[in-house]
Write a structure and sequence with these properties.
It catalyses: 2 a phenolic donor + H2O2 = 2 a phenolic radical donor + 2 H2O. The chain is mostly helical and about 325 residues long. The chain has two domains: about 120 residues, Orthogonal Bundle (Peroxidase, domain 1), CATH 1.10.520.10; about 140 residues, Peroxidase, domain 2 (Orthogonal Bundle). The protein is about 45% helix and about 0% strand. The protein is built from twelve helices and two strands. The longest helix is centred in the first third of the chain and has 29 residues. Bound molecules: 2-acetamido-2-deoxy-beta-D-glucopyranose. The site of 2-acetamido-2-deoxy-beta-D-glucopyranose has 2 residues, from loops.
């Protein structure tokens, strides 16, 4: 055979292969409804879950505050530009520099998992999926129930501090909280369930000490705070004291994932205002009621379901975005 016809044949074969690959990719997208699916990396990176899990495990063992940090990171990623790891990008005026994200922790855990994954299966696993897995692993490591995490998110190219305004805030009214969640396709039950992530972690005095002394210029505390809980909070956050001191959001259980957070809400022991209002507003109270007391296993099951729902907010799949080589920067 002449060299030129061999070349032509090779060219044709390459073209055929490229066409087949494009077709199967398109079909893959249709099959998953353009979204994410469990087992997305089963042939391309079968060890992805154990690699992320061991990175999270060693970090949480060394420092338990990493667990709530990673859980919160996933929320803050999904609410801004969808779950696309835009929260991880570094640079001037990125999401990471915005006020609500200033105290986020656990970035180094995501980076460590990514480094390991780039050795094992280079260019395959998105940073957005690492964040989703790390959030699930944090819940499991603190005693919550596991769930299967659908994967296949692509990493976003845009991160702007100004976009973080739609994150729920510590002093949002219930109406505002409901509408911020509704804007992301999440209903009132999802809201009450996902805020239950506050069963682990802490808040700085700066976020709630205004409730303790001169709430709304009444010269007294927020009436939603149980009078028997007030001295405890005042001792932790003295008037004019250290505003960076951190206080458990779920009193008595800050490192253990479970439904005691809702019992605390019912008992006037919600620490931040937006949490406490979940009990005082009848639109959300009935869902708090459904999770309190003996309903711990219901909460644990619902939490996984709500996390999967949140994890699909505005995800980028198929040819959108990219698979970053390093989570803190675009390729
Ligand atoms: C919440 O607090 C922030 C910062 O202190 C303030 O700018 C904002 O107006 C408050 N929002 C509400 C609804 O009170």
């Amino acid at each position: 055979m002449e060299l030129s016809s061999l070349n032509k044949m090779v060219a044709l074969l390459v073209l055929l292969l490229a066409t087949l690959t494009t077709l199967s990719l398109a079909q893959g997208n249709r099959g998953s409804g353009g979204g994410t699916r469990v087992g997305f990396y089963s042939s391309t990176c079968p060890r992805v879950e154990s690699i992320v899990q061991s990175a999270v495990q060693s970090a949480v063992r060394a420092n338990p505050t990493i667990a709530p940090g990673l859980l919160r990171m996933f929320f803050h990623d999904c609410f801004v530009n969808g779950c696309d790891a835009s929260i991880l990008l570094q640079g001037p005026s990125t999401e990471r520099t915005a006020g609500p994200n200033s105290l986020l922790r656990g970035f180094e855990v995501i980076d460590a998992a990514k480094t390991q994954l780039e050795t094992t299966c280079p260019g395959v696993v998105s940073c957005a999926d690492i964040v989703a897995l790390a959030a699930r692993d944090s819940v499991v490591l603190t005693g919550g129930r596991s769930w299967q995490v659908p994967l296949g998110r692509r990493d976003g190219l845009v991160s702007q501090a100004s976009d973080t305004a739609n994150l729920p805030a510590f002093n949002d009214s219930i109406t505002t909280q409901i509408s911020k969640f509704d804007n992301k396709g999440l209903n009132i039950q999802d809201l009450v369930t996902l805020v239950g992530g506050h069963t682990i972690g802490t808040a700085a005095c700066a976020l709630f000490s205004y409730r303790l002394y001169n709430f709304q210029n009444t010269n007294g505390p927020d009436p939603d705070i149980n009078p028997s809980f007030l001295p405890q909070l005042r001792a932790l956050c003295p008037n004019g004291g250290d505003r960076s001191r951190r206080v458990a959001l779920d009193t008595g259980s800050e490192n253990s994932f479970g439904n005691s957070f809702y019992d605390n809400l019912r008992n006037g022991r919600g620490v931040i205002e937006s949490d406490a209002k979940l009990w005082s507003d009848r639109r959300t109270q009935r869902f708090v009621q459904g999770f309190m007391g003996q309903s711990g296993s219901r909460f644990n099951a619902e939490f996984g379901r709500a996390m999967v729902k949140m994890g699909n907010i505005e995800v980028k799949t198929g040819g959108q975005g990219e698979i970053r080589r390093v989570c803190t920067a675009r390729n």
